[in-house]
């Protein structure tokens, strides 16, 4: 039961829940329901709703429609460089997982054919994958790969680091990339895969990567905005000197 002192009960409950979320529950764990909390602490469900709502606003908790309220997971902070998603997650002590949703060979869209240096009649490998970290959906990827440089790619194990596979099997080492980053709301299909509500913020990375000066990969990735952030180093060089090639994302 909560005390009847000068501190409002919703504020008392908020601090109790803050302590539970930070010190007792693992990231991504469910929080007791409003009914359970109201009974446990002898308050109204309106008081519970207000306390939980404040912690949601702070980003400590998140509500998932139809499922309940959960503690948030810390965001993965990515510093832009050309690296494997699998290796990056392992370096951070997280367990990476890849779900292959589709792997086909087909004619790419005209803009992709141009970026990969293909003729309009040439085909490319198309991979649609879901990337997870510690069991949580992190990103949805749709990538096109130069079939002439990567024969038989679709017969390989595509559930691990693709960059490691390209280096080991094809001696293709992706060295540079040109990347665009933007923010948008998740469409219904992407939201379902990422386990978020439609319209939730996602970071979109579009990159074309090269090996030995030849384009190999045209990739678009949608990362959950609540689990992923990007840090980059910025230098002020008014004369244009210096190296400002921030390439990357994680595969």
From TrEMBL:
Residues 7-74 form the HTH gntR-type domain. This is GntR family transcriptional regulator. Keywords: DNA-binding, Transcription, Transcription regulation. CDD domains: WHTH_GntR. It holds the Pfam family GntR. It comes from Saccharopolyspora cebuensis. InterPro entries: Bact_HTH_transcr_reg, Chorismate_lyase_/UTRA_dom_sf, Tscrpt_reg_HTH_GntR, UTRA, WH-like_DNA-bd_sf, WH_DNA-bd_sf. Signal peptide: none annotated.
